[in-house]
Design brief:
Length: 404
């Protein structure tokens, strides 16, 4: 431990990371630099400064990364229509590469010997933080207190905090609250009653959305404008990436959109139950598929659908900074050059319904698709040869007596 003189800690100001500051100072006799990222979690991040100062931290980084987060991480992911195991929109996963990058950049800028985080030894985040850090700075040292110390419960953390005079907000006695993580893309809930996958989530747990039953009786319509696969305007008004998600979260949540209750397969091997609210992301996914439906060639669209599960797994498992993710991203981004136009969606009691799509680059040709007289735009006689050629192998096999 003697070679560790300075550590950069991913610091939220909450119980875990506040305890980690003191633990690092005592165990390593080192200087601690704190880094707090504002990714749109909906809570003030500036109070983290006062808490860090109270524990003797001299170098404190608090950064507003909301626009960078959405523009350079969320939007590229949504160009792929990314969804993990058929349901999860990867709200936690996609935030970790940016935090990892800033951790190692701050370590270099401050001359730190190591970085540290508050992820537990049971979760995915330890993998995501550390894979990112090693990919960007191969020689970086990582300190993961949850894998080293004996403070393995909230009660022990609270006792440690009380012993060392560490201020703790929202202290709830011995009853553990939900473990929550929030950013502009989503808010997640784990632990407590959710550890029993048969137990329904309590209604008062949800923070961003009303229940579909209590959503307005009248639908809400939104028009989203796309350029190269990204939303650039809402209802005709140019909008920044962060503002896009902030607005869609608000209007989606008000209409009961975006709740999810799943059991997912963690990279470390266990199954875990989590609840998520992703109102804006739910709208974005539906709308992006709609604009692609008229602007993407069939085989390009199908290829994207084939590689998407692999791409989603890379992000979930922490491989954002891997060469294979970058290669897939290049392919995905190449498909988006004609994904321009507008999508109109209707939000009603938890549902997102696409009700219109248009584009100057549309591949939808009404003169061909029509059920009315197409005036020779499509020769239906051509279909006979097409069908017979595609049936040839089936006919040969059946003629040889092969039975399905």
């Amino acid at each position: 431990m003697s070679d560790i003189k300075k550590v950069v800690l991913a610091y939220s100001g909450g119980l875990d990371t506040s305890v980690i500051v003191k633990w690092l100072q005592d165990e390593y006799q080192c200087e601690v630099v704190t880094f707090t990222a504002d990714l749109g979690q909906g809570e003030e991040v500036e109070p983290a400064r006062a808490k860090a100062e109270a524990m003797g931290v001299k170098e404190i980084y608090i950064e507003d990364l909301r626009e960078e987060f959405v523009a350079n991480y969320v939007f590229p992911m949504f160009r792929a229509n990314t969804i993990y195991e058929g349901e999860y929109l990867l709200g936690t996963s996609i935030a970790r590469p940016l935090i990892a990058r800033r951790l190692v950049e701050i370590a270099e800028a401050t001359g730190a010997d190591a970085i540290s985080h508050g992820a537990t030894g049971k979760g995915n985040d330890q993998v995501r933080f550390e894979l990112g850090a090693y990919a960007l700075t191969p020689g970086i040292q990582v300190i993961a207190p949850w894998r080293d110390w004996d403070l393995n419960s909230r009660e022990s953390l609270l006792a440690y905090a009380e012993k060392h005079g560490i201020a703790v907000e929202m202290k709830r006695g011995k009853k553990s609250p939900y473990s929550m993580d929030a950013n502009l893309l989503h808010i997640s809930y784990e632990g407590g009653p959710l550890e029993d996958p048969w137990t329904e989530a309590e209604e008062d747990m949800w923070r961003w959305s009303v229940s579909p039953e209590k959503a307005p009786e009248e639908p809400t319509y939104i028009e989203l404008s796309y350029e190269k696969g990204d939303i650039v305007a809402i209802d005709g008004k140019p909008t920044s990436p962060a503002d896009v998600l902030e607005y869609l979260n608000k209007v989606g949540g008000a209409n009961g959109v975006g709740r999810l209750d799943i059991v997912e397969n963690r990279y470390v091997g266990m199954k875990a139950r989590g609840c998520y609210e992703t109102p804006g992301g739910t709208i974005m996914l539906r709308a992006h598929r709609a604009i692609e439906s008229i602007t993407l060639d069939r085989e390009s669209a199908h290829l994207k659908d084939e590689i998407m599960p692999r791409y989603a797994t890379l992000i979930y498992n922490g491989y954002w900074w891997s060469p294979e993710r970058e290669a897939l991203q290049a392919l995905i981004d190449n498909t988006q050059k004609y994904v321009n136009g507008d999508v109109r969606v209707k939000l009603y009691k938890g549902n997102v319904t696409v009700v219109g799509r248009r584009s100057e680059q549309t591949l939808f040709d009404e003169s061909i698709a029509t059920f009315e007289d197409d005036e020779g735009a499509y020769n239906q006689k051509d279909a006979e040869g097409f069908i017979k050629l595609n049936a040839l192998r089936l006919r040969i096999a059946a003629g040889k007596g092969r039975k399905l």
